[in-house]
Amino acid sequence: MKKIFTLMLAIAAFSAVSGEIKLLDKPTYEFSQVSNIRQEFAINASLNRAWVTLKFDEVGDGPVVYDERVQVEGLSYNSTTNEILLDVEGTQIVCANVKINFFGTHIKNTGKCTFAKKYYNVKVDNGYEVETIEKLKITLVY
Fold it and tell me: Is 0.70 surpassed by the pTM of this model?
């Protein structure tokens, strides 16, 4: 009985800090020229700020990449510990470790904060007909 109670507490504690944060949720036709979308953490070390950068690789005559910065509530950079932290209900999750040296800034994901992509269909009534639109949702999973 004691083991079951301990297990239930552990599951409750784990589920209290697990979840996802939406970074992008748009129709795929907006990305008709995009061949790949990558997600990366980025920082401003002097202001202790962190965000997620979505990198869109476009198809065309040559490689074209454009970035979109996404602010994530609770995401910050700790310059003392060199960590990107996600604060979820008072719990600090270390999303990435940062190394800053002469060659630049190197950010390595810890695996505690991952990114998920999901394609799904929605029905939209445009006033004339009902059509099905494919959408892409990208989330930060912790």
Answer: yes
